[in-house]
Here is the input.
Amino acid sequence: MKQDLTRREVAAALLAAAPALAVDNSLQAPAAQGDPLAAARKQLRRSLEKMEEFDLPMPVEPAFIFKP
Amino acid sequence: MPQFTDDIFFATISELNAKLKAREFSAKELTRAYCDRLEKLGPAYNALALSLRKPALKKAGEVDGDLKRKRFRGPLQGIPFGVKDLLSVAGYPTTWGARPYAGQVFDDDATVIKKLAKTGAILIGKLAMVELAGGGGYSYPSASLTGPGLNPWDKSRWSGGSSSGPASAVAAGLVGFAIGSETSGSILTPSAFCGVTGLRPTYGYVSRYGAMALSWTMDKLGPMCRSAEDCGLVLEAISGGDSNDPGSAGKRFYYAPRFARKFQDLTIGYAPVDFDEWPPETSRPVLQQALAVIRGMGFRVKEVELPDFPYGPVTGTIIDAEGSAVFEPLIRSGKVDELADQEQIAGLKAGLEIPAKDYLRAMRIRRLILDEFKKLFWEVNFLVTPTRFSVAPGAHERLGEGSRQQPKPKSRGLRDMIPAGNLAGLPALSLPCGFDGGLPLGISLVGRPFYENTLLAVGREFQKQTDWHRRRPPV
Here is the structure.
C-alpha cells in the first residue's frame, strides 16, 4: 500500500540514513591518478621491455625444477 | 598482582623466560598484561587485526601448570607473541588485511603456529598487514583493511609494509615477538623503519602451510624481534621440513652461535657507495658508523657490486604473474574492486595478462642471478648494506615520491639487494643501527642460503657493542 510521506517524515528519513550512506573514506587510499589499469599495463610493458633487452643465452632454464 | 613496567614489555625472550621460570610472575599474569597493552595501544598504530585474549589465557594456564611441575620446554615457553594476519588460526578470522576476505575463517592452524604452540609460546593476537601483502603493487600506506600502519617512533610516519602490524607491535612492546612474511622486502623494510630486528630466512626453511600465498617461489615467513638472539631462538622453533609445503627445504635450523666461525676467518662484501652516496646526507653518518662497528669486529673486507641484472622487472614480473594467478578467483569475480588501493586493484588485474613466455623469461634470468650469487659467495661470506637508505615516509604520502633529490651515483653498489636477495632465496638479518631525525635506520647482513647462524652471530656481536635495539619509542 502506497503511503505518501510528509516533508517532515522525508527529512527525518534522510537524516537517519546519512551515516549509512556516507562512505568511510578514512580507510580508502586516495583515488589513483589517471587510469590505474592502463598505468599498470604500461608498467608491466616497461618491465617486459627491460627483460627483453637482457641477453639470455638459449640453454638457460627457468629457476624451477620438476621432479616426478 | 605484579607490576608490569616497560622493562617487562620491552624485555627479550630470554629475559622474560628467566623471569617466568623464577616465578616472578605467572604466564597468565604476563599474558594478561600483554593482552591489555596490545588491545589498548595496538589500535593507536593500526597494528591489531584481532585480539586472541581468551584462547591465550587458556594456553597460559596450561603453561603455568607445566612451569609449576618444572616441565621446561625451552626459551619460548610462556612468551606472548603475535602473527601477521596472513597466518591461519583455526576458527578465527584470517583477513589477509583485505576487505574481500574480512570474514574468512580456516579450520586448521598454520604450521608455524602449531610449532610455536608446542614450545609453549602464547599467541595473543593477529597483527595488521598491507592488503594481500601488497601483491599487485600499492601506492599508499593506507592499502589495508585496518588503515595505514603507524610508526611508534612517530605516528605521522608509516611503519613500513607489508608486515606493518608485526613491526609496530614489536617496536612498541605490545608482543614479545612476532612472525612476519617477506616476498620482497616485507620483513626487512618495516623492521628498519620501526627499529626492530627482523630475519628473513632462506627460502624453504620455514613452512608456508597455512600462510596466504602471494608468490609461491618467493614467499618466506620469519621472526621480527627485539634482538638477533631472539630471532635465532624463534627461527629454531619455526623452521623444519613440512610435507604440506611443496617449497619446503626439508631442513631444520639449530641456533648455535657458539659454533660460529672466527670473524677473522670471514670476508664481508660491501659497496662504499651504499654508505657514502645512495643515502640522503643526514642518514650517511649513522650508516657509516654502523659499518665501522661491523668492520671493527675483525673481518676481511672486499668491495663488491651487484652483477648487472634487471632485478626490479624480474621481481615484478614473477610476483605479478604468480600473485594474479593466486588471486584469479578474486579478480574474475570482481571482488578485487573492494580492495583499498586503486593501483593494487589495477596491478592484480594487469598481472593476469602477463604471457607465459614473459614469466618464463623472468624465471630464466632468475637462474642466472642464482648462478652469479653462488660465484659472489665464493669471494665473500656475507654482504653488508643499509636495509633502506632513508627513514620511514609519511603515513599519508604517496609512496616513492620525493625519494631522491640528489644526483644518482654512478655505481649501483648493492642498491637492489632486496629484490636480488629475494629472487635468490637468500637469508637477511636487519639490525637497528641508529636514528636520523628521531627515526630508525637499519643495516642488513645478507648471506648465502642457510647461513643464518653466522648472520645471527654477527648480529649478536653488533648488539653487544651497540644499544640501538634497546631504545624504546615514546609509547
